[in-house]
Amino acid sequence: MACSIVQFCYFQDLQAARDFLFPHLREETPSGAVRRDPSKSTNWEDDGWGAWEETEPQEPEEEGNSCKTQKTSWLQDCVLSLSPTNDLMVIARGQKAVFLVPKWKYSDKGKEEMQFAVGWSGSLNVEEGECVTSALCIPLASQKRSSTGRPDWTCIVVGFTSGYVRFYTENGVLLLAQLLNEELVLQLKCRTYEIPRHPGVTEQNEELSILYPAAIVTIDGFSLFQSLRACRNQVAKAAASGNENIQPPPLAYKKWGLQDIDTIIDHASIGIMTLSPFDQMKTASNIGGFNAAIKNSLPAMSQYITVGSNPFTGFFYALEGSTQPLLSHVALAVASKLTSALFNAASGWLGWKSKHEEEAVQKQKPKVEPATPLAVRFGLPDSRRHGESICLSPCNTLAAVTDDFGRVILLDVARGIAIRMWKGYRDAQIGWIQIVEDLHERVPEKADFSPFGNTQGPSRVAQFLVIYAPRRGILEVWSTQQGPRVGAFNVGKHCRLLYPGYKIMGLNNVTSQSWQPQTYQICLVDPVSGSVKTVNVPFHLALSDKKCERAKDMHLVKKLAALLKTRSPNLDLVETQIKELILDIKYPATKKQALESILASERLPFSCLRNITQTLMDTLKNQDLEFVDEGLLQFCANKLKLLHLYESVSQLNSLDFHPNTPFSDNDLAVLLRLDEKELLKLQALLEKYKEEKTRTTTVRFSDDKDGVLPVKTFLEYLEYEKDVINIKKISEEEYVALGSFFFWKCLHGESSTEDMCHTLESAGLSPQLLLSLLLSVWLSKEKDILDKPQSVCCLHTMLSLLSKMKVAIDETWDSQSVSPWWQQMRTACIQSENNGAALLSAHVGHSVAAQISNSMTEKKFSQTVLGADSEALTDSWEALSLDTEYWKLLLKQLEDCLILQTLLHSKANTSTCKVSSLQAEPLPRLSVKKLLEGGKGGIADSVAKWIFKQDFSPAILKLANKERDAENPDEPKEGINRGLFEVSEVEMNLGAIPDLLHLAYKQFPCSLELDVLHAHCCWEYVVQWNKDPEEARFFVRSIEHLKHILNAHVQNGIALMMWNTFLVKRFSAATYLMDKVGKSPKDRLCRRDVGMSDTAMTSFLGSCLDLLQTLMEVKEADVSRDEMQVPVLDTEDAWLSVEGPISIVELALEQKHIHYPLVEHHSVLCSILYAVMRFSLKTVKPLSLFDSKGKNAFFKDLTSIQLLPSGEMDPNFISVRQQFLLKVVSAAVQAQHLAVKDGESSEEAPTTPFGKDQDWPVLAVDLAHHLQVSEDAVRRHYVSELYNYGVDHLGEEAILQVQDKEVLASQLLVLTGQRLAHALLHTQTKEGMELLARLPPTLCTWLKAMNPQDLQNTDVPIATTAKLVTKVIELLPENHGQYGLALHLIEAVEAISLPSL
What we know:
Layout lengths: L3 E8 L2 H8 L44 H8 L5 E4 L6 E5 L2 E11 L5 E12 L8 E9 L12 E8 L3 E5 L5 E6 L7 E5 L15 E5 L3 E6 H21 L10 E8 L3 E12 L2 H12 L11 E10 L3 E7 L6 E2 L3 E2 L22 H6 L11 E4 L2 E3 L6 E6 L5 E6 L4 E5 L4 E6 L6 E8 L16 E2 L2 E2 L2 E9 L4 E6 L5 E6 L5 E3 L12 H4 L8 E4 L4 E6 L12 H17 L5 H14 L3 H12 L6 H17 L7 H25 L10 H8 L3 H21 L14 H7 E4 L2 E4 L4 H16 L5 H11 L3 H14 L1 H6 L3 H13 L16 H12 L3 H28 L6 H11 L1 H25 L11 H4 L7 H6 L4 H13 L3 H12 L8 H9 L10 H11 L6 H18 L4 H13 L3 H30 L5 H7 L4 H23 L1 H6 L20 H6 L6 H19 L13 H6 L17 H27 L9 E2 L2 E2 L3 H11 L4 H14 L3 H8 L5 H22 ...
Parallel strand pairs: 1-5, 13-19
Antiparallel strand pairs: 1-33, 2-3, 3-4, 4-5, 6-7, 7-8, 8-9, 9-18, 10-11, 11-12, 12-13, 13-17, 14-15, 15-16, 16-20, 21-22, 22-23, 23-24, 25-28, 26-27, 28-29, 29-30, 31-32, 32-33, 34-35, 36-37
């Protein structure tokens, strides 16, 4: 047993604490480099750690590696303290602090470990500019009798540059504040109660010592303990019930002014010491001279040692009773819900107000008592040497001091001299470890355990000095006083060594005897690896006797370790040497350790291990029983039995065993008790499952090591206790490896099943354990089993043999209950994710169970009296029916699960242009247990996740459903053909997917009902979209699925849940952003406020509009909805026992009815926002189009009744709304014109990047109706814009919808004039000039007044313009003022068109 360093705790997120304490070291994530975790919901309000603090601006690096160095050495600049009970750690810097608490969590490897997590963080300063200089975590003992030895709570003591010492709870609640000296606090140290090792040692009291630059204050531990408890109770009561002021007792302390010393850096309070008469006379002579008088009673003194300069080390002695203890003026912080009162009672209690009240009221500092002068008695004078730290040993006899010369000096505290010095340890950090000798390790007899002694005398105590040299990155352990170095470890250059030097406060000579608190003495914090380590030092390392048996044994162990590492060709020689070494070892514990290292060796063959263990066993048996350690003897016997078992199994696996029995499908059917049709169905299902799984799984190379296990691993997995072999806690892979070693050859028919079962049973392995191992192998080796059907026969044989073992199936078991043996097997099948192997094993289990039940029935029947033979047979069959029903239920569940898993394995042969990372994630494998725990919607949810990965359109689901309906001959097949056209050409290459979907629908007629499936798909798509809002197509697909839901109740509920859960927050953010900027916002602003790009936000608003319109359509169909029944959510008979979360459809049916006017109100706003983003409109503030009532109604619950605008609207609002709608119409026609120019068909609606666009003119007219704007004005503007862009044929169609055709005609007349003015005045042709001269003067003047620049399309044929003039004359009445002008225009147009003819 050598010195070792052990990790006992880790940090969950140490970098977060560093970023909080050092904001300038915070690592900025490059844009686009690292994406946010997709499992977390994107929330634009989320901020990182320390968002409540202002981020300090990062200054440019002046030196190349300064920032990089600080990122690793930052812990050296912090104040650090860890509670000795390891239940709290404090890291502080400046004014900030982080409190970390340990929590048990599972690591990445699945092992449970302790991790420090942030429990509280914030600023500790109360006065401006003060910073933390020192901190302590002091655990306080519980006063309860039933305490388990853990502390009641931990108090954090913090010293500040202002001189204040403040006490906090683990949650950062301030309990107490003390100002005992108006200088900065240099150091805080604590001493707790220790039982004196022998009567000559003076009993020390508990105390807290506070070091200032020229003074030292010691607070009595008992007084502090009582005050802290009272303050904590006061805070708890005040927080719960208000202003209850309970005065804790004031603190008793002593304050010494240290004199005759230049500077003080650190100190050590040694405690009360009593001099011997000789020392008393010597001291009196030194101080008072030859004639000094001495008292008869020996004086008691408190000793203090300081380190600094001039003297380098100073020794102070304060006589007990020379001064009276001072009573402090305590400042108590009261956490009150009602008020924070400032009170100053007669006892000198102070409180303070809230921060803004403090600024108004002048702070009153407590009265600071003067210090009692205390001169230095003597010291170690060294003018050039400056001390840096001092660390007192646990038994108060030695102290280690570090200085600025890189030395570590060991002091004898009692004599005041330096007794040892170590060189080359600059910036060293030091601590102590005290080890108590454990005599029971040597003595075989059982004795009364005590940490300090036993029946054979007191245990010895050894002290070791631990030195951490950060510049060399090495941690050393030295034996004191003059001992050698006993351990050295490379630990890195940025660690911190923590040595508290105290334990739990509040114990005394009575309570400390019953307590055995788990405290550490020293620990090392490594910020690079994020771990906390401690050092284990065996006691025997302190023994310097060369003849020490322990030291000799350790030498032999080291020699054995070196021998095991050598590669020697002569194994016989190595075996002989190992035997000699292990027999020479004296201590039983060391001998056991040596045997363990031998058995764990990978280089020794099995024969060597067996021979060595047998030799040791024989030697122990030949010795007298009195001198033989029973534990070692039992250990050898157990290991020898395991080695014999390993040898027997290896021999059976190595034999050539070839059964001659041929195997056919008929034999398999008989074996599984299936008829031919059932067997064919089973084989077809397994074949489909194997095909689809083969397509999805990666390439797996054949493993030749199946069934082979090294002896070292075998011994690590098993343990032998009381003639029974148990398996240790091992991983699933290791469990399968052990099972393969026992059963793999048997399952392949390459080993004798009967011999293997007999060997394992006789070795002490229970049938239940063997069954568990067998099933783990079978279920994990699915691919090999499906490729070799003959293994089913081997499994049947093996299971039959295991079931016939003595304690497998209890014959006296109650026939009306479930057999635990078969329940164990069913549980394994239910939990397995390899459904093919699970289904086969369930069939085998069902067959064996039926076979055994039949034999038991026959046995019972044969023992029954003849008169009651028929009744006995009937009773026995009824008794066995319960297990049979469970088997049948399991087989149905496994078959369903297999079909579903086959579907989820399948993939379409589609080559989509873009696959999201969310779609590339593999689907989790299914098991019956997962489906039973997934709730009623678990099956549909699994299929919905698969549909999302494949990105199928809703039409494919409908198509597969129609195929199911087509099985009914009465229904015509036209619907199926029609459904084919709904599926895009890209998605037609589906392979076997429609058949698999059809089979799943057939297997799950209730769980995969079409509306239920569409609802789950809709929800899955919107959930995935919320993870990555840039994938706007997910949201579009979600709306498609929503529209395919036929039941209005479900459709309404799903839409409402989508709106409330995912949309309304982003929708409101988009509204306020667009209203703030007054136009369509840029990409950067969209990402900052809404969490998506500008293009994604456009699609988002369009999909929101579709959702709201769907909600309104559902509400409009209220009549049919009332007639439509609420769907009954049935479950298949095999899955009635499902438990788990409530399904999406059930939640949807619980939703309330929407308030139609409020949804309509939101739909209008959404249309406006969509138009602004779609056409990049400017100078539009969406909310300015609504009055105060309309604004207040936005973003409220759609089921609530809100006060909406009603009656006549202010004309100013209507005017602004009309301008906006006309702007939308103009932008829509312009977009349509550009699309036509690009060669698209004008008859089809233009498409956006994420789907078909809206019919904007129709939408604008609809908006006009809701916004109280004249619909005819919008229609007229639409007609004018169509003619403006030269799309006359569409304009003629749109004229039919206009009501006031007279006004429209006047508008079109102006447009005609602009076209003619362009043709005659702007082309400047000779014919045009001549024609202009022939026109009437009135017409010429009117044409010259026209501005052709307003025309968007000037390339319109004159014949088209002639049709327009004719249309205008048709629309104008003859008594209209411009009718004559229109007639002149006809003549002008005809004249212009003549030359062209």
